Amino acid sequence: MAPHEELAARFSVEELQELDAEGRAVVTDHGAFVLFNLYGPAITTSESEAAAARFDFKLRFYAALQARWDELARRGRAVIVVGDLNICAAPLDTCEPKSFALESRADRLWLRQLLGFPTPQRAAAYTVWSTATAARINNHGQRIDYTLVAGLPVAPNGPSASLGPLAVAAADISPDRDGSDHCPVWVDLAGGPVPVAASAPPGALRHVTLRNWLSAPAAAEAAAAEAQRRAALSEAKSAWSRIHTKMGAPRCRHGEQAALKRTNKSGDNKVTRGAVPL
């Protein structure tokens, strides 16, 4: 059974067309492995009925993908999945763990089962931050981007005859790389054979290789990026300073400065406070 037939056995043609209509998965075969480049569905509405429908779409989207992954694995193919899954697998993956719900979120349970146990244990290794609040400065973020590898051995010291010709030598994130609200999540493959290069998808306006994008920028570009970062940091600090600046006393309708006075009268007005003109 081919991978596409595996999908056809579980999903109707209409379902597959619906799941593929948003262009959230690009699949390329590089010979040594099959690469799935994903942008997982997110729940962006607070309206309960629409949110429930979107959540169902999200679960079916990943169920269809896993059907392809499993069939490729059964055929002995190595599979690499990269991208923004829009799922936090564990409380450690968010800067606000108290708000993390697990049992009520089937997508999180699915990802935990996919990752196996233990889930990633590196703390504060976030991959996305809100740009609206400059959250990256304080690393107030979440871990929702992954590089998942199946069918290739992990060999920090390089591949060997016992492990096979191609292996995972290293993997990490690059939170210091600007340019997006997400940071790069990368894996270093060592050994051979050299993977078959994939051309740009049809309709692409330009194609920038990941190697060139991650390479060290020129000195002028680095200086400009650092200046931009410092300017953004300065603006963020100024904004927070303005927010926390203590407000002055108000003025009355005559323009006179108000002051806090204490009165000591009998009756209901005894020991009360109020702002009155000087």
UniProtKB/TrEMBL annotation:
<dbReference type="InterPro" id="IPR005135">
    <property type="entry name" value="Endo/exonuclease/phosphatase"/>
</dbReference>
<keyword id="KW-0479">Metal-binding</keyword>
<feature type="site" description="Transition state stabilizer">
    <location>
        <position position="86"/>
    </location>
</feature>
<dbReference type="GO" id="GO:0005634">
    <property type="term" value="C:nucleus"/>
</dbReference>
<feature type="site" description="Interaction with DNA substrate">
    <location>
        <position position="182"/>
    </location>
</feature>
<feature type="region of interest" description="Disordered">
    <location>
        <begin position="245"/>
        <end position="278"/>
    </location>
</feature>
<feature type="binding site">
    <location>
        <position position="86"/>
    </location>
    <ligand>
        <name>Mg(2+)</name>
    </ligand>
</feature>
<feature type="active site" description="Proton acceptor">
    <location>
        <position position="182"/>
    </location>
</feature>
<keyword id="KW-0378">Hydrolase</keyword>
<comment type="similarity">
    <text>Belongs to the DNA repair enzymes AP/ExoA family.</text>
</comment>
<dbReference type="Pfam" id="PF03372">
    <property type="entry name" value="Exo_endo_phos"/>
</dbReference>
<feature type="binding site">
    <location>
        <position position="182"/>
    </location>
    <ligand>
        <name>Mg(2+)</name>
    </ligand>
</feature>
<dbReference type="GO" id="GO:0046872">
    <property type="term" value="F:metal ion binding"/>
</dbReference>
<dbReference type="GO" id="GO:0008081">
    <property type="term" value="F:phosphoric diester hydrolase activity"/>
</dbReference>
<dbReference type="InterPro" id="IPR036691">
    <property type="entry name" value="Endo/exonu/phosph_ase_sf"/>
</dbReference>
<dbReference type="GO" id="GO:0003906">
    <property type="term" value="F:DNA-(apurinic or apyrimidinic site) endonuclease activity"/>
</dbReference>
<keyword id="KW-0460">Magnesium</keyword>
<dbReference type="GO" id="GO:0008311">
    <property type="term" value="F:double-stranded DNA 3'-5' DNA exonuclease activity"/>
</dbReference>
<protein>
    <recommendedName>
        <fullName>Endonuclease/exonuclease/phosphatase domain-containing protein</fullName>
    </recommendedName>
</protein>
<dbReference type="GO" id="GO:0006284">
    <property type="term" value="P:base-excision repair"/>
</dbReference>
<feature type="domain" description="Endonuclease/exonuclease/phosphatase">
    <location>
        <begin position="30"/>
        <end position="182"/>
    </location>
</feature>
<feature type="site" description="Important for catalytic activity">
    <location>
        <position position="145"/>
    </location>
</feature>
<feature type="active site" description="Proton donor/acceptor">
    <location>
        <position position="84"/>
    </location>
</feature>
<dbReference type="InterPro" id="IPR004808">
    <property type="entry name" value="AP_endonuc_1"/>
</dbReference>
<feature type="active site">
    <location>
        <position position="39"/>
    </location>
</feature>
<feature type="binding site">
    <location>
        <position position="84"/>
    </location>
    <ligand>
        <name>Mg(2+)</name>
    </ligand>
</feature>
<feature type="binding site">
    <location>
        <position position="181"/>
    </location>
    <ligand>
        <name>Mg(2+)</name>
    </ligand>
</feature>
<keyword id="KW-0464">Manganese</keyword>
